[in-house]
Amino acid sequence: MSTMIYLIYLTAVSTLSLPVLLFQAFVWSKGKYERSVVPISESLQSELFQLCKTVRHGFPYRPSSMAFDPVQKILAVGTQTGSLRLFGRAGVECYCQHESGAAVIQLQFLVNEGALVSALADDTIHLWNLRQKIPAILHSLKFNRERITYCHLPFQSKWLYVGTERGNIHIVNVESFSLSGYVIMWNKAIELSTKTHPGPVVHISDNPMDEGKLLIGFECGVVVLWDLKSKKADCRYSYDEAIHSIAWHHEGKQFVCSHSDGTLTTWNIRTPAKPVLTVTPHGKQPKDGKKPEPCKPILKVEYKTTRAGDPFMVLSGGLSYDTVGRRACLTVMHGKSTTVLEMDFPIVDFLTLCETPYPNDFQEPYAVVVLLQRDLVVIDLGQIGYPLFESPYPLNIHESPVTCCEYFADCPSELIPALYSVGSRQKRQGYSKKEWPISGGNWGQGTQSYPEIIITGHADGSVKFWDASALMLQVLYKLKTAKVFEKARCKEEKADAVDEDPLAIQTLFWCPDSRMLCVAGVSAHLIVYRFSKQEVTADVVQLLEVRMLSERSGVDAPDPGGDQTPTAPPPSTPQDGDAPPAPPAGCSEGARDPVLQVRSSALKQSPGYQVELVIQLLWVSGEPPQQVTSLALNSSYGLVVFGNSEGLAVVDYFQKTLILSMSVSELHVPAELRSPRKSQHPSGALCDSNEGTNNLDDRCKSPTSGPTSPCNSDDEPKQKFIEKDAKDGSFSRSRSSSVTSIDRESPEVLSSFHFCETLPRKWDGGLSPCLMVGASQGSVMMLSLTLPPAGDQRLLQPVSLACCGSLNRLRGGILTMALLDSTGALLPPPFEPWCDPSASDEEKEKLRRRRPASPPAPQGGQDAQFAVLCSDKQVKVVSMATQSCVHKHSITEASFVLRADVVHVAGASCVACFCANGHIMAFSLPSLRPLLDVNYLPLTDMRIARTFCFSNQGQALYLTSPTEIQRISYIQETCDNLQEMLSELFTPVDTPEAPNRGFFKGLFGGGAQSLDREDLFGEVAAGKASRSLAQHIPGPGGMEGMKGAASGVVGDLARARVALDERGQKLGELEERTAAMMSSAESFSKHAHDMMLKYKDKKWYQL
User: Following DSSP, what letter does each residue of 986-1055 receive, concatenated?
Assistant: First the structure.
């Protein structure tokens, strides 16, 4: 068989309209070179790429306010960063952002109108249109002279009451967002004899039975019942303690106030002299009848009535001061029972959900929504014990801080059902049997049909799998790595080694096809997991201890045979020692103990991911092991490779043995060029750790390593970037070696690995298993793998590796590597398809046959391979046959790349990059033509750098806050179809009928009294407000809202509907009263006629 050698050079690239790469291939055949031209067509064009945000998942970061639409059943949450999150049924979520970024202090729905009013801390109020899939602001009003403290929008009204810090109340027309000339001044509301200012307005509400009476609460403890028609105060109620909130009884005769001393006062509107009832729910009642001891403030109270039983009173706060350290509580008072519900986090706000939106009817509460600082819970009031509803939203992403994240789009279709089946057994019990009460909105009509999975690693050692298909997010399965280790840990001795939680996940590698998972933790430990649907019990956890070579110490490194101490002994190898070596000088036995101790007892493992092998790095020369900076696993080869600043190690997880431990400098030197004493095995693949007996000066150095580096100019900005991250106290590790290893004088760090089948050396005629190794100073090295035959021999014969030297060198640290075939298509690493261990031999054999075949040997120049090498500065395409650079492109000069991935988009492959200056870029393969360059997100937090990741089909994500995941798309098709894919918040729903007031109330006027607010607050009656008081700002969503609404006239319809409701309600009430009078007249006429018939034939003296 003749040997063929390929010399491939890039000669030309045609116009961008039809990009075709022409390669000249010189083939050595029959004693002479033959030239052949290999064209590679590229289908990706810049027109196919566009960047847009898609959806945001997770819990709203730093929440501040909340509102609920009882008809549409939509929940809105505002945050201190100016963002809005809207929730409906499972899968219906929406994110909006105020441009100013000011905190949202209050939210008010225009009930069943598809609109929302938000009040911000910068004294602006905004009207949001929710009738379009991406809500937009229609109007804004900026107050110039007064600070907004409280807002109130009555049901089915277009007039918004705005209370201010000065104690005044202004009225805003929500249709035009213009101020009315009607103003309630604080000095007219309080008594003239009062010498002090009452403080800010803390509450505004109208009487449920009389819209013409407005209840105003001032912070000092004064409450005023204001008559809107007569423009004067009807009654004033005064209490010694400050007021935090007020709640009405639905009949409008009583209201309840919560105070700063933990008391609740109940007032009758007819007796303002003193409250009819004063209680301290959590205060100790003295025996002598004195006033109870003061408690913490009751921040909010709600009073809800029922037809068939006692009313509910729900309040937050009010605990006694002697409950130091007690968690925040929500108190539910129902009849004679008082239930205290402890919360995991401080309470921000709560709302009681009721059956009716009308305030003048029995409320019939059925649930309480509690907004906590880091969670959202809904309590079922209809069941004994008040159980929680099971939340359908992915609000527990931050259950433990996220330390790493990976995104897999277009993965095997059977993965999500498999993960869901094992994850469904992990669900908690004890939830309410009822359906989730926040059930508004409709799902989008998405066109994406491929499965998507997100994996998050957390600080407590847990790993979560999420179903991210169709712009939704749902947890599938949770893996707890802490089960592998003993619970008792010696924190005193190990605090210096690991600053964070010792179980925190550093990085992870997942193979979707084989379902193999490997995680690396901050305590220099790795765990290999295998997926199984059967429950197993491991008597002993398989453990392999590894001592990495240390070039910095200059101390003799012990033989690796002593480091390999698996619980199940592997097959004997020539380098196995009879006994472990003594610890080096200056290293005590205690110092050699790992940070985490693997459990010695049996481990029961549920269906799902089960431990295959635990790898722990040991102390060397009294120094703790360096954290793992890169990791890769190959299920076809049965190998795990990991590296850090000390070198790399390759572990055979089939045989549970270490097959290679090598320093970084030794990787640069091919095996055949090493001195005899440094290669003790014929293959040169297994390097003894006693090579460390040579001094550091005697070690082989990279021929390209010199005192200077072309990237030294970037060290200063990177160092500042790392210092900022250290001050923030966040996890400082990233896949970017340029971020983790800045100091060029420090040892070179291994930053990337890639298993493949390619040409390990120049001029090789056949493909073989290889390992590509990337380092932080731009070097790319090759290792050749020699694997035993499959079957039983694979478990008995050792795997050997041989160093093949450097493949190429780039500026900056290597981030990612990939392999292309002769057509430019991406070549995935070999893998072993997943097979259930309990499956029959026939099923296993069928799966093996379906395994993708290895790439064939080069034939005729058509099967040439190209390596894609990307660093934090540049990207190269290298011919594997000649190991020469075919094409290269400089990504950035002033900044550096944080994350790079070779992804599959629109039937082709490209390189996607995210830079520290905020640019997101894409380059075609193999020509490296720029396809996308957008200045999207300037890097302000290491969290973004640590979690940003690209995936196939033009998808990407990052952790935008400690509690939220932001997903983006960088292809045109997704951006064009985004409107169809997003969910709808507003759905047409009929407003419930108003409560029936009964015959006598309608006849004698005992029902609710309506008010024509237009006659009071309109420009004709009240005049115009001062222009300097507030400034109207038209919203950018005005036209967009009209386009997004049905028929383009939704605003007119909404205004007409409100006007009809305002005026039609009064006409309806008059019609009902007229009908009642007619019925009464008919009844009177009938009785009179009957009496006349009874007495018409009798004389007067017979009566």
Answer: ----PPPPPPP--HHHHHHT-SPBP--HHHHHSHHHH-BPPTTTEEEEE-TTHHHHHHHSGGG-HHHHHH
**Backbone phi, then psi, for 1029, in 5-degree steps?**
-75, -40
CA-to-CA dists, residue 593 to 163, 617, 618, angstroms: 64, 10, 7
CA dihedral 438, 442, 444, 449 (to 10 degrees): 80
Locate 862 and state its tokens.
């058509």
| 110 — pLDDT class (breaks 50, 70, 90) | very high
Query: Hey, which of 356-365, 686-695, 933-942, 1048-1057 has the most confident mean pLDDT?
Result: 356-365
User: One-letter amino acid identity for 162?
Assistant: V
**CA 335 to chain CA mean position, Å:** 41
pTM value surpassing 0.85:
no
Helix (H) or strand (E) holding 1089: helix 1050-1095
- 165-169, 858-862, 869-873: least confidently modelled range: 858-862
Q: Taking 60 as the threshold, does the pLDDT of residue 584 lie above it?
A: no
Q: What secondary structure letter does DSSP report for 388? A: B
What Cα–Cα distance (Å) separates residue 826 from each residue in 20, 729, 1073? 17, 39, 79
Question: Does residue 29 carry a pLDDT above 50?
Answer: no
User: What would the pLDDT profile of 410-465 be if each residue is shown by its tens digit?
Assistant: 999 999 999 999 999 888 888 999 999 999 999 887 667 899 999 999 999 999 99
At 661-688, the pLDDT tens digits run: 988 888 887 866 665 444 333 333 333 3
Nearest one of 890, 854, 886 to 867, comparing CA atoms: 886
Single-letter residue type at 679:
S
> Is pLDDT of 227 > 80?
yes
Q: 604 by DSSP, 3-state: which?
A: strand
Partner residues linked to 379 by β-bridges: 368, 388
Inter-residue contact 252 to 362 (CB < 8 Å) = no
238's enclosing H/E stretch is strand 232-238
Least confident of 452-456, 572-576, 598-602: 572-576
What is the token pair recorded at 798? 């050792």
Residue 169, pLDDT above cutoff 60: yes
What sign for the dihedral angle of Cα 839, 841, 843, 849? positive
Q: Is 880 helix (H, G, I), strand (E, B) or coil?
A: coil
Half-sphere exposure of 123 (CA within 13 A, CB side): 15
What is the identity of the amino acid at 570? P
Closest alpha carbon to 95 in 987, 1042, 978, 1051: 978
- Asked if residues 730 and 942 have their Cβ atoms less than 8 Å apart, the reply is yes
Instruction: List the end-to-end C-alpha distance of the chain, in Å, as a whole number.
Output: 137
Q: Cα–Cα distance between 842 and 833 in angstroms, integer? A: 14
To 10 degrees, the CA torsion angle through 1012, 1015, 1018, 1024? -140
- Show the CA angle centred on residue 633, arms to residues 632 and 638, nearest 5°: 150
- Residue 493 CB-half CA count within 13 A: 15
**Using alpha carbons only, what angle is made at residue 828 by residues 822 and 830, rounded to the nearest 5 degrees?**
115
Distance (Å, whole) CA 786 – CA 943: 40
Find out whether the peptide bond into 437 is cis, omega within 30 degrees of 0: no
Question: What are 772's two structure tokens?
Answer: 């590509």
Is the pLDDT assigned to residue 998 strictly greater than 50?
yes
**Main-chain dihedrals φ then ψ at residue 697, nearest 5 degrees:** -70, -25
CA 191, distance to chain mean position in Å, is 52
Tokens of 233: 């105060």
Instruction: Scan for tokens 């050749």, then name that residue.
Output: 784
- Of residues 657 and 837, more confidently modeled: 657
H helices of 435-588, where? Answer: 491-494, 560-563
pLDDT of residue 146: 94
CA nearest to 750, candidates 648, 854, 899? 648
Which residues neighbour 513 within 8 Å (Cβ) at sequence distance 6 or greater?
412, 635, 831, 833, 834
Percent of the chain with pLDDT over 90: 60
